[in-house]
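ERR on first pass: missing label on line 2. Operator R.T. fixed the label and resubmitted. Corrected input:
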Amino acid sequence: MAIIVTEQTRLVVQGITGREGSFHALRNRDYGTQLVAGVTPGKGGQDVDGVPVFDTVADAVRERGANTSMVFVPPRFAADAIYEAVDAGCETVICITEGIPAHEMLRIYNYIRPRGVTMLGPNCPGALSPGIANVGIIPAQVFAQGRIGLVSRSGTLTYQIGKELADLGLGNSTIVGIGGDPIVGSSFIDVLERFEVDPETDLVVMVGEIGGDEEEKAGDYIAGWMTKPVVAYIAGFQAPPGKTMGHAGAIISGSSGTAAGKKAALEARGIPVGESPTAAARLAAERVA
Amino acid sequence: MDLYEYQGKQLFARFGIPVSDGLVATTPEEARAAAEQLSDPVMVKAQVLVGGRGKAGGIKYAATPDDAEQHARAILGMDIRGHVVRRLWIERASDIEREYYLSITFDRGAKRPLLMLTTAGGIEIEQVAEETPEKLARLHVDPLTGLLPFHARRLCFAAGIPSDEVKQVTAIIERAYEAFVETDAMLVEINPLIVTPDGIVRALDSKYTVDDNALFRHPDIAEMRDTSAANEQEQLAREKGVNFVKLENAGWEPDGGEPKPAHWFDGSRDIGTLANGAGLAMSTIDVVADAGRASGHGPANFLDVGGGANAESIATAIGVLLEDPNVRVVLFNVFGGITRGDEVAQGILTALERLGTDMPIVVRLDGTNAEEGRAMLAAAAPPNVHVEATMLGAAERAVALAGGEA
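pass 2 clean. output:
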C-alpha cells in the first residue's frame, strides 16, 4: 500500500518544461509513476516526451484525472502554483522548490489544512515508495523495497540512511522528505500517523535536525499513540546557535531547537536516537530482526 | 538577516512607529557632529548584532558633543561578545517614565504569528515569561485574516496598559504587524517600548530579523547587510554563493553566549569539511567531531555545496575551505542525488590543478554516478587524494591525516 505516493498516484508536474522539471518528471515516469500531465502556462497543447502539457492545473485534472501535483517552479511563482493545484482539486501537493518566503508558507499552510490537502515541502526531495512510485528527486537506486518507513527533513541525509539500511539488508515501504523550511506542509506527526496505519510498515526511522520543536512534538505523539517502534537520528550537534545551517529552518534560537535538546526529549520518551546515520540504521535493524 | 538597531528603527519610522531622532556615526568626529546637529543630550549606542550591549559598556549618555566624541572613541573598536563595534547610533536622549515590551515572532510551532506585550519591559523577556507569566499577554493571529483591531485592543487590556495609553499602543501594534508582514520579518521586537513623562509612547530599541528567502522582493533591505560584520572567510563564501559557516571554539560562556554544551568539540579545528545538502553537511561535522574527539582534531566548518553541484561549484568551494590557515585536511562527503559523482570528481581534479595544493583530501562518493567519479579519481591518481568507501571511514581517515599520519 505504502503512503502518499502509491499505485493510485496520477501525477501532474507544474514547471514540466523547465530543465530540472522535465528531467525529474521523466525520471519519475521511468521509475513507474503514473505521470499523466504537465503544466506550463502558455505552453498548453505541447508535449514533453509524450506527456501532454496544459495551461492550467484545472485542465490537467479535468482532462487527465491528475490527483497529485509536483511543484518545480521558481520560488517567486511557487506559492501561486501551490494555490492553483489545491484550487484545481489535487489531493496531494509535493513542492520541491527551495527558497519560498516563510510568510507565504504561513498563509499556504493555514489555507490548505482545513481543505484536507496533503502537502510535502517546500524545499523537500519528495516521496518514494520503492517498487511502486517516485515523485521528486530521490535517487531510487539507493533504496531497497522493504518494511521500514523513513521520514526526514533532509534530502541527502535520507539517502545516507537509506544506504546504511540497504547495507544491512533492509528496505523501505515509503521514504518521505518533509522539507527543511521553517514552515512545511506536513509535520513529522502527519507522516507518522500514516505509517502507523500502513499495513506495509513495521518500523519508522525519523531523521530530524536542529531548529523548531517538531521532533519533540513527534516524541509525544510516538510515546502516546504509536504501536510501531520508531528510532531517530538528529543532525546538528556541532551547529553553533544563531547560524542558519543550509536549510532555512535549521537554526538554533538561543537555547531552543538544539540537537542535544531533541535527543534528550526523544530518549526521555523511550525513543532510541542513533549517534550517527550508521548507528541509527543499526538501531532499526536490531528492532526488526 | 538580522538588522542593526538603527536599521530596524528606520523601518519602524517608515511604518509610522514613533522613534527618537538619530544619526549614524562611524568615527568620533561624526559622533560629535551628530550630537551637535541633534542639539540635545544624546545616547551613544554601539551597533552590533548581539545582545548585552549595555552591560558591556556599549551604550553611554552624553550631555555634550564633547562627551559624545569621547564615548564614541571608547566604544568604536570595542569587542562585544565577539562582535567588533564599527558603527554607532547617536540618538536624542529620552526621559523614561515606564518601559513596556512588544514583539511579533514567527511561531513555527503554532504556524501563526505570535504577539507578546507586557508592561514589565526593559528586561529579558524569558525572565518575565518564567517568573511572572501572568504579566505577559500573548496572542496568535490567523495569517489569512491578518491582525484585526480587536486583537490589538485585547492584547493591551490583557497586558494592563493604562487606558489613556491604549490608543497609542494599539496603533503601534497595528503598525508593527504591518511592518512584520510587509517586510517578511521573522522577528520584530521593541524592548523597551517607553512611555515618556508627558505620556508619549515610543520605540527605544529594535530587534529586527528579515527572512533571507524573501530578500528578493525587498532590495532596499537586502542592501542593509553589513558584509564587514561577517568573518572574512564567511564573507568570501557569501560572495561566491557557497553555503558556509565557520565553526569556532569561542563565543560561549564565560566570554558571552550560552553555556558550552557537553558534546561541543573543543580541540583543533583543522579539518575542512564539504558535503552536498544541509542535513548531510550537518551530519558530517557531527561525525567528524565524534571521530576526532579523542585525538583533538575536528571540523573547521560547515559547508553545503547544495543540490546539483557541478565541477565549477566544487572547485570554488574547495577554494573557500583553503582560505582557513588552520585547515590541514579536507574531507569530502558527497551522496549524489541530483549531484553527480563524476561532476564532483571533475571538480576535485579541477581544483587541484587550479589551486596547486598538496593538502590531503579525503573523498567519500556515493549515489548517482559515484562509480564513474571514483574511477576518474583512480585514473588521475593525485597523490594527496584518499578515497574512502564510507562516511565513518572517511571521517576517521581525515582525523588520522590531521594528526600527521600518512
